[in-house]
């Protein structure tokens, strides 16, 4: 659009200059015609599809809201965490496969139908979240997005965790019944 306006503006200025200047001067006439030709070229190229594709302003992807946790976790770390959670019976292994566990933690929420079924109460699930975030700090997960917004972290029976219960868990139960177990699980991850 800018090139069209610049081109058309230059064309009109050169047309006006050509009428008002002395026509006997060949240098002024050649400059006027060259500028008019360049302006015509600018105005025409702005209408081509190739030009639009090259100069189209692309919005950065960071402005788009991401719908994943963005955990930077390797395949071996996912497998180790999965095995430790199933070993201590903190995860429903029959309802959450290793593939589902990996997909939920690393992929977009709307690209799959997997869920992680935890056998944890409110205070224990909050401690699980806190250990997970401390162990893998480069993520975009908040407590609310982890449990409520995503809808991917659920209880063993498939019902969602209540965000307010998890958020207020430390005031009612400072240390959960699985505190030491979760600490041991995540200590092995470091």
What is this entry, summarized?
With 190 residues, the protein is mostly helical. The chain is 56% helix and 3% strand. It has ten helices and two strands; from the N terminus they run H-H-H-H-H-E-H-H-E-H-H-H.
Structure description:
- By secondary structure, the chain is mostly helical.
- The chain folds into 2 domains: 2-58; 75-187, no CATH class.
- 56% of the residues lie in helices and 3% in strands.
- It has 10 helices and 2 strands; from the N terminus they run H-H-H-H-H-E-H-H-E-H-H-H.
- The chain has helices spanning 2-20, 26-45, 49-55, 75-87, 98-106, 122-135, 143-149, 163-167, 169-172, 179-187, and strands spanning 116-118, 153-155.
- Strands 1-2 form a two-stranded parallel ribbon.
- It is rod-shaped, with a radius of gyration of 31 Å.
- The model has no long low-confidence stretch (mean pLDDT 80).
How is the secondary structure organized here?
Blueprint: H1 2-20, H2 26-45, H3 49-55, H4 75-87, H5 98-106, E1 116-118, H6 122-135, H7 143-149, E2 153-155, H8 163-167, H9 169-172, H10 179-187
Parallel strand pairs: 1-2
Helix pairs in contact: 1-2, 6-10
Distinctive features:
2 domains, two-stranded parallel ribbon, 10 helices, rod-shaped
Question: What is the N-to-C order of secondary-structure elements (H for helix, E for strand)?
Answer: HHHHHEHHEHHH
β content, as a range?
A: under 5%
Kindly state the percentage of residues in helix. Answer: 55-70%
Provide a count of the helices: 10
Estimate the mean pLDDT confidence.
80
Count of individual beta strands: 2
How many structural domains are formed by the residues? 2
- Structural class determined from secondary elements: mainly alpha
